[in-house]
Amino acid sequence: MSGRNVLSRYKRALSVVEKWPLDPLKNEYRDMGSLLRKRIDIEFRQGEIAKFEDAEKCDKMLASLENIASNKYKDLYKTEWNGATTDNFEDAQKFVSDEMMDMLRENAEIGIIRRGINRVKEQFLPASKEQKRLS
């Protein structure tokens, strides 16, 4: 692969990571944006002399990442957002946050179902509803 092709792929990869937001609720090892940045640094470390085993595979992966970063399929197949446990995106983000993972580790002695129920109560039930329920 020529240096020009590597450079164009590198520019495409950089444009993808510029669009990809960092998730403040996750650490660098769990955040997709952070992992993409590291992977691109590794793959293109040698600059123009970088070699790819399969240039076609590299192009397909970049195209897929570009589609995801630009919300191509989200815009193409619009749906009303709802989840199995919450009705909005912000609450769903809290479920996969580092804070939630830490809480799960801290309560490892409790069964996973009870732990999840307790966390949902703490996180999403207003204090007044919980207090009424307990009295």
UniProtKB/TrEMBL annotation:
GO process annotations (BP): mitochondrial respiratory chain complex III assembly
Key words of the record: Mitochondrion, Mitochondrion nucleoid, Transit peptide
Location within or outside the cell: Mitochondrion matrix, Mitochondrion nucleoid
UniProt main location, coarse: mitochondrion
Any one annotated GO CC term: mitochondrial nucleoid
InterPro entries: UQCC2
Keyword check for Transit peptide: yes
Cross-referenced PANTHER family: UBIQUINOL-CYTOCHROME-C REDUCTASE COMPLEX ASSEMBLY FACTOR 2
Name of the protein described by the UniProt record: Mitochondrial nucleoid factor 1
Organism: Dreissena polymorpha
Organism classification: Eukaryota, Metazoa, Spiralia, Lophotrochozoa, Mollusca
